Amino acid sequence: MAKIILKGHKGIGGTAEGEALVCQEPVNLMADTGNVWTDPRDTTFTNQIGTPSVYGRSFAGKVLVFPTGKGGIFSTNIMMDVAEVGSAPKAIINVRAHPVWVALSIVLNIPLVDRLNKNPCKVIETGDWVKVDGRKGTVEVTKKKD
Amino acid sequence: MQLTKDEEKMLSGGYGEGYRRAIEILVKLGEFYDAKRLVPISMAYLIVGPSPSKPGKASEWLNEMVDLGATFRCPLALVPLDSSSFSAYDLHKKLGAVFAYGGTGHPRNLLCLPVFGQHIVADGTAVTHYMNSYIGARANTECFVGQYSAAIVGKTPEYGFHLSRNRVGKTLFDVKAELKDETDWSALGYYISRTMGKNYWEVPVINGINPHHITHDELISICSSIPAYGACVHSLLVGVSPEARTLEEAFGGKKPKQRFVVGPKELQGVYDTFSTSKEKPDMVSIGGFGVNLSIEKVLKLASLLEGKKVSEDFPTVALIDGPVRVVADRTGISDILRAAGVRLSMEEVFKERGVDGAEFFNYPVICAKRMGWNTLVFADAKSCHYMGNQDIEPVLKPVEDCVKIALSGRMEAR
Does residue B385 share a domain with residue B302? Predict the structure, then answer.
C-alpha cells in the first residue's frame, strides 16, 4: 500500500498513530461536542450546523483532522477532562492551528502538526491510518482499502 | 526563541517548578508560532471557565501551580468578581490576583484598561477583540493555560496579534446600511463573522460609518458578535480604531484582499437567519449569555416597562450585572423592572424552577437543553449564534420588539 508523506512545521508532542477522523469544518468543543458537558467520555460531535461532516461521530482515540479551531477558550477545560477519562484524540492535524488548540496539546502532550505541504483535510479521509510525528512535523498516511 | 538569562534560569527550574512549568508552556507555544522572544505584559484579564467534571482537571492544574509556589509576576492580574470565580477566591488570592468587575465574556464594565500598544492577556474572544480593536492593546486568544502561564511569568510569546505586521487589515467591509441600535451592530458583526469564514488570522476593516454617530455601547455589541462565528479577535473600524484613523492606515498602505458591501439586505439576512414561525417563545432574554446590558439599555427598558406587566407564560430576563447593576439598584430601576415581572439574572430564573443555576454559568446550550427550552428571543446575535447550533431556535429582535413580545406573550408578526 502506497504511503503519502506530508511535511509541515515543527509541531507539539511526540509520535502517535491511529485511524483518522476528518472534519471539514473548524471545531469549537464548547459548541460542537455538546454531550461532554454531561459525560466527558461522550465525545460525539453533536452540532449539525457547525460540524456536519462528522455529526454523530466520536473523536475518542482517533487522529482528529480539521482545518482550525474557532475560538472556544474553554476547549482546553473540556479536553483536559476528556483526556482524564481516556477519550482524547491520539493526535491532532490542522491546516493552521488555533492558539487554544496548541495550548491544550502542550498541556496534554497530544501530538499536533499543522502548516503541511498539502491540505490534510483533502489528502486524508476518515478511516485512513495516520502516523503523526510532532517533533519532525510530519504525517504519514496509509489510505484505507476500498 | 531567544531567551534572556533570567528566562533561561526560570526554564531550568531556578525559580521553582511552578514557574518552570509556566514558562515551558509559553516557550513551546512561542516556538510553534515562530515567536522570536517573550514580551512583558502590562496586565491580564483572567478566566478559568467551566469544566465538564467537578471540580475538573482545569482547577486541579491551577491548584498544582499554587502548590508549586507560582504567583503572578504580571503587574496587574484581574479575576472577575462573580460567583464562579469567588469559589476559587483563596486560590486566586494566593496567586496574587486583583478582583474586579469585568471580563466574564463581555467587554462592558471593565474596571481596569491597558493603554495603546501594550501587550496583554485579555479573557475571552469578546474582551480580546475590544482590547485589540478599540484600545489598540495587543492580545491573542488564549485559554486558561495560556492566560495563567503568561500572568505567572509576566510575559507572553510575541506572535499573532502582538506583531504589528499581523494587525493590518485584510478584508474590507463597506457598510451601506443604517445601523439603528445595538442589535443592528451585533447583526453587522455577525454578518462580517459569517462572511469571513472562520479564520482566526483575518483582520476585517469596517468602513463607511460616521464615527460621530457611534456609541461606545455599540462597539461593545460588535465586539461580542464578530468573534461569534469564527474567533476573529481583531478588526479595524475606520475613524474609530486607533490603528485605523484612515482607510489607508487600516490596510497599512496595501490593497484589501477582498471587498464586501453590507447593505440593508445583508443586515436583514441576519435577522432572517434567526427567526421563527412559532407563536410563543420559551424565554425572552434582553442581554444574552455573555452580552450584558448597558446603562442606556437599562433606562430604555425601564421606560418601556414602567407600570406594565410581562407575560407569565415564559421568563423575561434582563441581564444586568457589575457596575450597571449597582446603578440600577440604587436608582430604583431594578425595582421598576422587577415590578414588571422581569428577572435580572439567569440565576433567578433557575432558582424559581428549583434548579441550581451556578453550574449553568455561561453554558447557553446546556441551559436551554436542561430547561427544555426551544424558542428563545434575544436582542443580540452572539447569543442567537450559540443557541442556533443545536436544535434550539433563537430569534433576533431589537429591544423594543423584545419588550412587545414579553408584554403580549406572543411573537409579533414580522
Answer: yes
Q: Tell me phi and psi for residue B275, to 5 degrees.
A: -135, 175
- CA-to-CA distance for B190 and B222, rounded, in angstroms? 8
Task: Name the residue of chain B whose CA is nearest to A82's CA.
Answer: B52
Nearest by Cα to A23 from A61, A77, A62: A62
Is residue B200 less than 8 Å (CB to CB) from chain A? yes
pTM, two decimals, is 0.94
> For chain B, how many structural domains are there in total?
3
In chain B, which residues have their Cβ closer than 8 Å to the Cβ of A88?
A: none
* Cβ(B399)–Cβ(B384) below 8 Å: no
ipTM: 0.97
Domain extent at residue B340: 276-408
For residues A120 and A79, the answer to whether their CB atoms sit within 8 Å is no
Of the partner residues A26, A75, A81, the one whose CB lies closest to the CB of residue B143: A75
Using the 3D structure, point to which of B272, B289, B314 is the last residue of a domain.
Answer: B272
Cα B359 from chain centre:
19
B48's CB contacts (< 8 A; 6+ apart) are: A77, B58, B59, B62, B85, B88, B144, B148
Averaged in consecutive runs of 10 residues, what is the pLDDT profile of chain B (414 residues)? 98 98 98 98 91 89 96 93 66 88 76 94 92 97 96 98 96 96 94 82 94 92 86 94 98 94 97 92 86 88 97 93 90 97 88 72 63 89 78 90 96 64
B217 burial (CB, 10 Å; 0-12 / 13-18 / 19+) is: middle
